[in-house]
Amino acid sequence: MAPxxxxxxxxxxxxxxxxxxxxxxxxxxxxxxxxxxxxDFGFKSYRTxxxxxxxxxxxxxxxxxxxxxxxQVFEHLSSPRAAAQNIRRMLRPGGMFVITTPFLIKxxxxxxxxxxxxKEGMVLFLEENGFVNVHTDSWGNxxxxxxxxxxxxxxxxxxxxxxxxxxxxxxVWGFGHRPGRLEESKAAAKRAAKRAKQDAEVxxxxxxx
Length: 209
Description:
Layout: H1 7-23, E1 29-33, E2 45-49, E3 65-71, H2 80-90, E4 91-102, H3 119-128, E5 132-139, H4 142-147, E6 171-177, H5 181-208
Parallel strand pairs: 1-2, 1-3, 3-4
Antiparallel strand pairs: 4-6, 5-6
């Protein structure tokens, strides 16, 4: 099954396909959250879970994956930080998370519609939740924005412009990786040192009173 080729998603789908192709799909065990758009991409193995039946904010599978894809899901989550951390834990060390979200897209509750991120905001969101080597991008233009206010418009290359107007981001996408074991050990040591420093500062402040 190919991803839906709506005008508003066309460039995003092409870019996500490039990201996955560069990762070597034939070697990847893959989980897709809430959809089957990428099921026929030639992965080593493929599994899907459906939100909200599988609540990625609190549920976690016992197995781990090389790649997890969440396309147009995170705007509907009440606790996106918890979901991102769950996804990181379900990735193998070095595994990749691919995320796509709308920005200047009409309100669409399914069952709710909570959040939006710019591409800069997406970098912060992924890094704050433990991902490394993060890259994000966006696409949109005014013509597409207006056309999709009522119905989702299928892409017609004879009619529809793919010009990217940077001040009208309709879609935002990106990817980040779970740190490898050495990186995770270093990060844990850094966090422990930071906590120890903070505790020492609190103790010193109390002693000065």
